[in-house]
Each structure stands twice: as structure tokens, then as C-alpha cells.
Amino acid sequence: MKVIQHIENAKGKPLFSFEILPPLKGQNIQSIFDSIDPLMEFKPKFIDVTYHREEYQYKELPNGLLEKKIVKKRPGTVGICSAIQNRYNVDAVPHVLCGGFTREETENLLIDLDFLGINNVVALRGDALKNETYFIPEKEGNAYASELVTQISKLNQGVYLDDDLKNSAQTDFCIGVAGYPEKHMEAPSFDSDIHFLKQKIQNGADYIVTQLFFDNQKYFDFVAKCRKAGITVPIIPGLKPLATKKQLNQIPLRFSVDIPDDLVMAVVKAKDNEAIREIGIEWCVAQSKELVASGCPVLHYYSMGKADNIKQIAQAIF
User: Against a cut of 0.70, is the pTM above it?
Assistant: First the structure.
């Protein structure tokens, strides 16, 4: 079932969903099941699975030259999604990236997903590689998430890259896209960010899931800006509980989000990571309760493969 259908069927009741990482290369699927099993009691209607593009590494050869190698540290998104749907009978939502894919490779990926009965995707541009200052698309790839949304929408209409195909089958993907309550780090202004988000919706996206945030007012203001701009699709808040002191520096740097002073000082004064973990849970529970009261359609948690703190939060909300 499509994500938007789950939302419609809930008739205003907030749904629980979460996002997981594929295991590192060399690990098996059991590590994924171990992170999902504790959360199944809360009846998630869908589970997102991130996609991690390739990285470049340089290996020194005996002659002193460097060999450039492409490495995928977290492969298996498509297989994991299929395994989730088969094991749990829950809709899996793979992330589909511009970065690292040509349009033809993207089309082939989407065809495979369609064959497997996976009809929800989140369309993302993806991050720049570590050695890139700015994102560089593949030579024959999509440069922006809006272009990727267009490609997926065309497949939904039976339009493939090969113009010679006749009587081609239509796919039926529900398309999610990312939104940024505190503005995408590369956007020159908030208004321009909303403008390009609206473009993704006009190109065929069905819903928005937000970047993580710790101040609900940022989310409420973002929703208001979207509605004023004519964006009417569901906007799902993305939440992540703080768990370690390092995250006070890592999260703002990695995701370009602010952490409220009250939360920062509570973490700074905490005696150890166990205390910080409890602070993070309490803060996220408070966020969740306020978002539920505001009528949010779904609470979407970034679990990062850790189920214990998400479980405690869900127990307080669902």
C-alpha cells in the first residue's frame, strides 16, 4: 500500500514509522531484523531504508602509484526492502538517489523495485562525495531531486527512456521527497528552498518527510510556509533523539540544524552518556506529544539502527 493511502486510511490518527540503515558490507540481514523486531509492537505502516552511494578510495600500488577504487560500504537497500516486506508484511520505502546513478541505472533500479512489489520510494539528490566541495551528478544522471521525481513520474505513466518501447507497463510509485524545516544548507534563502520543494511536488511527489529537528516551532513555521506557497501534500516530521555528547557538535555540522539552548545545556551538564540518552528520550517524547496534538499524520523516527531509545519513545506515544 502507498504511504499516502496509509495516511488517508488512518483518518487523522498519527502513524508510527522509522528509518533504518543497511548493514555495513560483510554483515548479514539479521542485524536489520534485530533493529526492527523490538519496534513491531507499535505497528509501523512503513519502514524507510536509506541508500548509501559509493565512495572513492585510493590504494597504493607496489610501484608507488595510486589506484582509484569504488567502494560501497552499505550495499543491499533493494534486497533489504524485499526482505522486510516478506518477513513483516510492512511496506518498505527505499531511498533512491541521483548521486552515483545514470538515468538508465535509475530506471533499471525502479523496474527491479516494481517487480518486487515495492511501490513506495523517497527521491533524493544525495550528498556530495567526501572529496567533492559540491554535489556532482553522473554524466548521464539526474542533477536534482526534482529531475529524479520527474523520471519516476514518467515511469508511472509508462514513459521509459527508450522511445521505441511500445505498450510499456506503467509503474505505480508513491513518491516521497525531503523537506528542510531549517532550510537546506545549500539553499541561498528559505523562500528559494520552498520554491524548489514546490517544484518537486509539481513534478509528481506525493508527500514530504522532513530533516530532523529539535525545535517544533521550526517545523510548524515550515509547514505554514509550505501551505502559504500552495503545497498541500502531507508533511511528515522526522525526529531523532540525542544519545551522546558528541552529537551536540556532529548533528549541527552534519545536518545544519540548531539544537535549542535548553537541550544543549542539559546535555552539557549530564554526568555520562546514559544520562544524556535519558535526556534525549524525554526531549523527543515531549516533541512527539506536541506534534501529535497538532495533528501530524505520521511521526517518523531516524533510528540509525538503534531500537532501544525509539522503543521507549514509542511506548510513551503510541
Answer: yes
